[in-house]
Amino acid sequence: MVKTILAIETSCDETAIAVLEACGGLRSPRFRILKNTVSSQIEIHRPWGGVVPNLAKREHQKNLPILFNKLKTNKLKADLIAVTVGPGLEPALWTGINFAKEIHGKHFPGSALIGTNHLEGHLYSFLLPYKGYKPRNMRDVFPAIQLIVSGGHTILVLMISLTEIKILGETRDDAVGEAFDKVARMLHLPYPGGPEIERLANEAKKLKTNEAIQFPRPMINSKDYDFSFSGLKTSVLYHLRDNPKSGESKTNVAASFQKAAFDVLISKTSRAAAEFKTRSVILSGGVAANKTLRKRLSAACRRSGIGFISAPIRFQTDNAAMIAAAGYINHLKKKNRRLSAKGGMDL
Ligand code: KG4
Ligand code: ZN
Question: Whole-prediction pTM value?
Answer without folding.
Answer: 0.96
